[in-house]
């Protein structure tokens, strides 16, 4: 069996399309086992704060395409 370091090194050599396929495979596996995964403790608080901002009108729901566009245009 390969170590995580070996897998990461091999992933760096993959073509872009292969990396996307690998990512989709990993995400699919994680999604099927969703009930086994516990959210981190801080996550509930972050979600609650987002819901408060949304209720107060201080948060805006964006469709996925607009959110991606804004993230791509965001300067660090």
Number-wise, the strands total: 0
**Portion in helices:** 55-70%
Give the overall silhouette: extended
| Spatial separation of the terminal alpha carbons | 40 Å
Nearest-integer average pLDDT: 91
Overall tally of domains: 2
Low-confidence stretches: none
The DSSP helix count reads 4
Mind telling me the C-alpha Rg? Answer: 18 Å
Order of helices and strands: HHHH
Strand content: under 5%
- Largest sheet: number of strands, sense, barrel closure: none
Structural class: mainly alpha
Q: Could you walk me through the main structural features you see in this protein, from its secondary elements to its overall organization?
A:
This protein is mainly α and 76 residues long. The chain contains four helices and no strands. The chain has helices at 4-12, 16-32, 41-55, 64-73. The model has no long low-confidence stretch (mean pLDDT 91).
Topology readout:
Blueprint: H1 4-12, H2 16-32, H3 41-55, H4 64-73
Short overview:
The protein has helices at residues 4-12, 16-32, 41-55, 64-73. It has 76 residues and is an all-alpha fold.
Task: Note the main attributes of this structure.
single chain; mainly alpha; 2 domains; 0% strand
